[in-house]
Design goal:
The protein is mainly alpha-helical and 147 residues long. It has 2 domains: 59 residues, no CATH class; 83 residues, Winged helix-like DNA-binding domain superfamily/Winged helix DNA-binding domain (Arc Repressor Mutant, subunit A, Orthogonal Bundle), CATH 1.10.10.10. It contains 7 helices and 2 strands; from the N terminus they run H-H-H-H-E-E-H-H-H. It has a two-stranded antiparallel sheet. Helix 3 crosses helix 4. The protein starts with a helix and ends in an 8-residue tail after the last helix.
Length: 147
Amino acid sequence: MPSDGERFDELYRLIYARAVRHVPDKRAWLTPESRWVLDHMAEAGPLTIGEMAATFDRAQSTITEMVDGLCRQNLLERMPDARDRRRTLVWLTDAAFERLKLEREVLDVAVLDRALAKMPAADRERLYALIEDLNRHLGDRDDDHHL
């Protein structure tokens, strides 16, 4: 008889196999460094090139080159600092926020939406509550296995 963990693992793998988000062209993904920069900026807010260089421990020329590339991809934009017009800030575009949201999705949301729509609303709410409860219990871990 499988343990509860083994049963859950099997069900999770089946769900993952059926709902994993497929990316037709993996070259369209952000590079790890670009993703790191955009993720940090999404949390930190607009920064100057100098602040970015200090934060990311990179030369200003390297940051400028990266920002130029991300601007060409319409993921970053330069804008004057409203408090000090001599300074130029770098900030994420709406397209960058959308791209980050998409890249964070492990499962295909449209596939999940179609499957979940077939379930009664009460069952969906119970499922969400149970998964949230499991997630809370996973947060209680006291071993060395953590993200």
